[in-house]
Amino acid sequence: MQIENREIFDQVVAYLEHHESSLRIKKMLYCLCTHRWERNQEFLQSINCYHFAEFVVREINTHEELKARLFEMLKTLNKPQEYVPIAKIIYSALGQIYPEFHRQYSSELNPSPAVVAESAPASAKIEYNAFELRQNLMSYANPLRVKTILHMVMEPEEFLDPRKINQHLLDDLLASLIAKYRTLAEIETIMSEAVELLSDVEEYGKAATGLMQALVPLYSKKSRIVGAVTV
Prior knowledge:
The chain is an all-alpha fold. It is 67% helix and 0% strand. It is built from 13 helices and no strands. The protein is elongated.
């Protein structure tokens, strides 16, 4: 893919180059470019992130393909969980270079009311009791872990700064998820992808499973929505 905005690209590279985990970032970028896992730290320190990041973006045409390549790389490692956070950093940073990344996460996740009215007729909306959903969710999963997963899924551009999770309410993230996805199969897919990019895959996997269990009644019958309860 051609890099259209060099200013954004330079900012992304600077972020990766000066990140506290820059050595591991370089290791993954080098592997994306060469398909070889380099362990020589002196060599890795000498690597310029700019050239490798540029090569990755030019060779990988979409942010979805970038995510898939990172997943495939993680599967080949002896200790993949150690590099899941690094893959997340690379995906969230280099994703900024791809135009469809912004289109998908700005227009689709934050549509105007008029767009919602046109794309989601009232008859298609899933209505529910927000308080009952919250209580049900808490019986199945750790709500803070669920909130982290939902934040990653619904606000991916903010995930470079996890502190922003506190700016969102769990109820609002749940409402956005339910408004966007009409089937449990869709939710299961995005939950699985998100969990793989989080550091504690096992615990977040349990939280995602709990969320799925709590959502089953909503997608199998119609309920009436009430005001969200704040956290």
